[in-house]
Each structure stands twice: as structure tokens, then as C-alpha cells.
Amino acid sequence: MTPSIVSWDPKYASSAANFWNRLLEGVPHCYDVTAEELARAAAGEEGAGAPLQALRDDTVLLAVHEGEVYGYAHAAAEQVKDWHAGAGIIRFFAYEQGNRVAGKALLEAVLSEVRTRTPENIRAFPANYRYPCYHFLNANLSNRLDHVEALLGVRGFRRQRAEIFLDMPDLESLPAPIMTIPCELAVEHTPGKGELPGFSVRAFRNGELMGECVHTSGQEYSPRPEAGEWAFCSWLGVKTPWQGKGIGEFLLTRALGEAKDLGYRRASISTSGDNYRAFTFYSNHGYRVVDWTYELGCER
User: Fold this and answer.
1) Gap between the Cα atoms of 128 and 47, Å rounded
2) CATH 3.40.630.30 for domain 4-162
3) CB within 8 A of 43, min separation 6: which ones?
4) What is the tens place of the pLDDT at every residue in 32-63?
């Protein structure tokens, strides 16, 4: 099968959504999209992370054969700044597993488009330009899409950074939070896109912040009801003077209890692949790795 590489056209939205849903079946925290949702993403109307105004020259290409979509790519270039010429950005690229011909043709077309727009290096799947309806905050290319990374690797892309996702699929059995240092606790609920609110748990001592733990609803990243079962920890931090005193463990445990009380059934968290201290902490407190994701880069 030799596909045609065409620019985005709304007439392909339904087929593109079907391709997307087949592709991402089984990838953690990826949910089905509708044709309308994917069309909005292709138009650059949705995003997460860095403002999409930081990008220019968006290009959405499809690999199509007999009216059916077998590959999807969205690329752009960063805005030129006085100190930075702007990297090429591949926000999303994928093809039907087993159809390497379509993947290769689509990738070559994407690289040709990007390299006419920027002299800088190319970044693929950077988390700050995460594609809407793809995974949770901070995600790069999932290692479940190994055929995509393999083809990018053939064209010179190499892993630049990693983000590990860990899940706690059941909040029924949680340890009681224990705090050995006197503090004042503040819990705040923040309505968002989800049926359940996001929330933060903060610890103070004499009016000064010691640390905080922030969770958002999984429906911030997908409108599907099943995404709303997840509370995603988007931030856990402890001020330097209070580190190593059990405050992070207390805040996280207290936050998980709050998630359960609000009606969340599951919890997820992520950390940089080289943050072994956080990785050790999470994996010893009930979380289990479900996905490794990678940003890939290619020099000019």
C-alpha cells in the first residue's frame, strides 16, 4: 500500500479519529476522541503546557489510502526570539503499526515541512506542547508506541528526557497520614473541567509554607467519564528547610485521602526519569509504573 500524504481536511476527521482510537488503545491515560475533538486539535484550538502562541507555521499531515487515514502528524516551529531561532516541533506523529511504508512517507513529509521553517534542531513530543487528548500532563511519547520511536530513531532522533508515570489504581486501602512536626493544614478545592474538583493540600508553620500537594482531575486532559476517575498529582513540593522530615509523605498521603473523600477512585503521578529520589519515594508508597514516556530530539 502506497499512501498519499495530504494536508488536514475536515472530510478526513472521522477516519482520523478512528485511526487515533485504534492507535492509542491500551496506552495509559489515553482515551477515545471524537472527530470534532480531533478537528479542534488539528486547528490548534486546544493544548496544554506552553502557550500555543509560542508556535508558528502549524502543519497537520495525514497518510491516506482509499479515503482511510493510516498516519497523523502535527508539526510547527517555535517563534523566533532575539536569543533563540526557535526549534522545530513535532507535537504528534504516529502511523498504523505494521504499515512502515505509510509511516516513512509521512515522517519524510513532516521533516521536509519543519526544516523549511527553522534552522534549529527538532524536538518530538515535548511535554510543554503536549497534544490535547493525549495522556496526562508532562507526557512525552509513550513507550507503548514503540514502532513510532523506532522509526524516529531510524531518522536520527534520540531520547532527550524521560517522564515516568506511576498509578495507584485503587484508593480503598490508604494508610493514615502521620505528621510529627506541628503545622497548620489548608485544603482548597478548585473547580475545573472535571465532574470532581481539583484540590491542593498545603502545610504551614507560623504562617510560612512548608510544602504543598496539588491534584487535578483526569478530565482536565480528556472529557471521557473514565478519565474523571483519576486524580493526577500535578505538583508535590517541600521547601528546602523542611525536606527529609516526612512532610512530603504526609502531604501526599493526606491528599490521597482527600481524593478518596471527593469520590476519586484512582490516583496517578509522574516524575522525571532522572529523579531517582522521587521515583523511589513513589514506588515505595503504593504507586506502580505504568508508562515510560520520552521526548526525542534530532540535530539539524
Assistant:
1) 9
2) yes
3) none
4) 999 999 999 998 875 544 455 678 888 999 99
- Spatial distance between the Cα atoms of 195 and 223, rounded to a whole number of angstroms: 9
Annotation: CATH topology of 184-264: Aminopeptidase (3.40.630)
Q: What is the C-alpha to C-alpha distance for residues 170 and 270, in angstroms, rounded to an integer?
A: 17
Q: What does the alpha-carbon distance between residue 179 and residue 209 come to, in Å, rounded to a whole number?
A: 15
β-pairing, 55-65 vs 230-238, is: unpaired
User: pLDDT for 267-294, tens place per residue?
Assistant: 999 999 999 999 999 999 999 999 999 9
Question: Which residue type sits at 23?
Answer: L
Judge whether 293 and 234 are in contact, CB under 8 Å. no
Q: How many CB atoms lie within 10 A of CB 44?
A: 16
CA-nearest of 239, 221, 241 to 230 is 221
For CATH 3.40.630.30, list the domain ranges present in the chain: 4-162, 184-264
